[in-house]
Design a protein that fits this description.
This protein is of the alpha+beta class. It has two domains: 1-174, no CATH class; 180-344, 2-Layer Sandwich (Alpha-Beta Plaits), CATH 3.30.70. It has helices at residues 19-23, 27-36, 44-51, 55-64, 79-93, 99-132, 139-174, 197-203, 206-226, 246-261, 288-299, 309-315, and strands at 184-194, 230-235, 238-243, 269-281, 284-286, 305-307, 321-325, 329-331, 335-337, 340-344. Strands 1, 2, 3, 4, 5, 6, 7 and 10 form an eight-stranded mixed β-sheet that branches. Helix 3 crosses helix 4 and helix 6 packs across helix 7.
């Protein structure tokens, strides 16, 4: 339970931003103030007092958002920090969610935006290097570029979040899962694993490796979302995705394999596909079906897609697909399996293309 205190608006505001902070003007400091919504002049006891929560509850929420814990003497907070804490606490105080859920929501934001910001900064640095050379990506140039784009990126973030939330609401309205288990449902899970990634990572320099990984992630994302699937996560040489049904998952998997087979930068992939019950939690997917898809990936030859017999029984109804039995294999945790190679029945079969 979030421990509440009586807000004392204005108590911490009394001493205001320190004069030295107001007088320090560098591009980095000015942009930081702009993004934070003001100068950092509040200590943690002052900011939780503004939010009307206890120090313990404030620390929990702050840590969940992914920010480091500071000492009592650090002036690390702005008025915007107090308002954010107040809003999170109000969700619990008004009974809309409990404390554990509020922490989970905060953690989802913290972890997602941390990766988002790192990714965007890296993309901007690479852009500056391409346009102006290595000297064009010095810290001052990067800070200037971030300052110019910050409002536009913020607007796109909110727009994308709203669209993604709308899509999630739509999926919930048609979810075929157990109504008493809203996080569990039957989904098709695919793992795509780059061939010879370890060898390539040792041979390529950092820039070439970065180009390969970005190209892989970009193509995979375009094909998966274009086919109506969802990218769950990418980890270096592997992408995990889901689709609503086996046929959609198979079209995505085959399209991705074919796209990468002709790509000049990214090597072939092996893809394992399985359909069944999936536990969805914290933006990720878990369970036997996910493990099976991962195991099947190791049985696939480069440039191919394989599935299990249960998923294959559903795919066999699709006249655009052909299933070819492979030799039986002993798979850890699943015993003896006979994987099925998934292929297209003809040139007119469905295909997810990337412009």
């Amino acid at each position: 339970m979030i421990e509440e205190l009586e807000p004392t608006a204005g108590a911490a505001m009394a001493h205001g931003p320190p004069p030295n902070d107001q007088l320090t003007h560098t591009p980095a400091r000015d942009l930081e103030r702009r993004l934070r919504g003001g100068s950092r002049y509040l200590r943690r006891r002052e900011v939780v007092r503004i939010a009307g929560v206890s120090l313990l509850s404030g620390r929990k929420l702050w840590r969940a958002l992914g920010f480091p814990v500071v000492t009592d003497e650090d002036t690390a907070f702005t008025d915007a920090d107090g308002e954010a804490l107040r809003q999170m606490a109000a969700l619990v105080r008004d009974g809309q969610v409990d404390e554990d859920t509020a922490i989970a929501l905060a953690r989802a934001l913290g972890q997602t935006t941390d990766r988002l910001v790192s990714w965007q900064i890296e993309a901007l640095v690479e852009h500056l290097v391409r346009v102006h050379g290595a000297d064009g990506a010095d810290p001052e140039s990067v800070i200037k570029t971030v300052g110019l784009l910050a409002e536009d990126l913020e607007g796109l973030l909110v727009y994308t979040w709203r669209r993604q939330l709308a899509a999630a609401v739509s999926r919930l309205s048609t979810d075929r899962g157990d109504p008493e288990d809203p996080v569990g449902a039957e989904l098709t899970v695919g793992f795509a694993d780059l061939v010879s990634y370890t060898r390539l990572s040792q041979r390529l320099d950092q820039r070439e490796l970065g180009k390969l990984v970005q190209r892989f992630e970009g193509l995979a994302s375009d094909v998966i979302t274009g086919g109506g699937g969802r990218v769950v996560k990418t980890v270096g040489d592997e992408v995990l995705f889901t689709a609503d049904d086996p046929a959609s998952g198979a079209v995505i998997a085959l399209s991705l394999s074919e796209q990468l087979a002709v790509d000049d930068v990214v090597p072939d992939v092996r893809i394992g596909l399985a359909h069944g019950p999936v536990l969805r939690s914290l933006g990720d997917v878990y369970g036997v079906t996910v493990n099976l898809a991962s195991r099947l990936t190791t049985l696939a030859q480069p440039g191919t897609v394989v599935t299990d017999q249960d998923t294959g029984a559903v795919l066999a109804r699709d006249e655009d697909l052909v299933l070819v039995p492979q030799r039986r294999r002993i798979v850890r945790g699943f015993g003896t399996l006979q994987p099925l190679l998934v292929a297209r029945a003809g040139p007119n079969s469905r295909l997810v293309t990337v412009e």
